[in-house]
Write a structure and sequence with these properties.
- 19% of the residues lie in helices and 25% in strands.
- The strands form two sheets. Strands 1, 2, 3, 4, 7, 8, 9, 10 and 11 form a nine-stranded mixed β-sheet that branches. Strands 5-6 form a two-stranded antiparallel sheet.
- The protein is an alpha+beta fold.
- The two termini are 23 Å apart.
- It is globular and about 55 Å long.
- The chain has two domains: 96 residues, Alpha-Beta Plaits, CATH 3.30.70.580; 94 residues, Alpha-Beta Plaits (2-Layer Sandwich).
Length: 211
């Protein structure tokens, strides 16, 4: 049974940063080493460089595998700014699954982001492109899988191109609150609280039903 404390951090990854600690030769993007000076931690999962939000960094390989294995179905919630105003049929398509690279996505949760949550968002640096003739809408989209650029490809498939993408939270599926970027500004990170650490230890010791 696993008992040791876990060296694990929550980072609000900024736009323009790769989900790795070494730079890519010739790349225009930065890397995690520009923001986090803690040795021996690695990303559990990834966010594309042009996406923002929650990234879990851990020194525990088992935890990396547990959080990223799609068989366990951890809900990941994203706040997504799209071009256009979604119709009910477009949201229904996201919920039921769309074809991405000849594979249908799992059922998702999709709704317009409430106005009070939109008010907490800070403008991105650099700002998104805008077109005066086309409005934008913020969606809240929750997925249980993490295929390459999946959110962007899903919204594009229903005619709602993604302009900005922020991962807001990851659900540990234990009945407690999801791990989230709440309280963290872009580029800021924190270590897990003791209660969160105990939940992750419980996650590794539990044999959940695979979904």
């Amino acid at each position: 049974m696993f008992r040791e404390p876990l060296l694990t951090l929550l980072l609000h990854k900024p736009y323009g940063v790769l989900s790795q600690f070494t730079p890519e030769p010739g790349s225009k993007w930065g890397c995690l080493a520009d923001w986090v000076n803690v040795p021996d931690v690695y990303a559990a999962g990834r966010l594309d460089a042009d996406s923002e939000g929650l990234l879990v960094l851990t020194a525990n390989g088992r935890l990396q595998q547990r959080l990223t294995d799609p068989r366990f179905g951890h809900w990941r919630t994203y706040w997504v700014q799209v071009e256009g105003i979604p119709e009910t049929c477009q949201l229904d398509a996201l919920r039921s699954g769309v074809l991405v690279k000849q594979r249908r996505t799992r059922p998702a949760k999709a709704e317009c982001l409430p106005a009070e949550q939109q008010q907490t968002l800070v403008e991105r640096n650099p700002p998104i492109r805008t077109r005066l003739s086309i409005p934008t809408t913020w969606l809240q989209l929750s997925l249980r899988e993490g295929r390459n650029r999946q959110v962007r490809r899903m919204t594009a498939a229903v005619g709602l191109p993604t302009l900005r993408l922020i991962r807001q939270s990851i659900d540990l599926m234990d009945g407690g609150p999801a791990l989230s970027i709440e309280g963290l500004v872009s580029g800021q990170w924190r270590e897990l609280r003791s209660s969160e650490n105990q939940r992750l230890i419980g996650l590794l010791n539990r044999q959940p039903k695979r979904r």
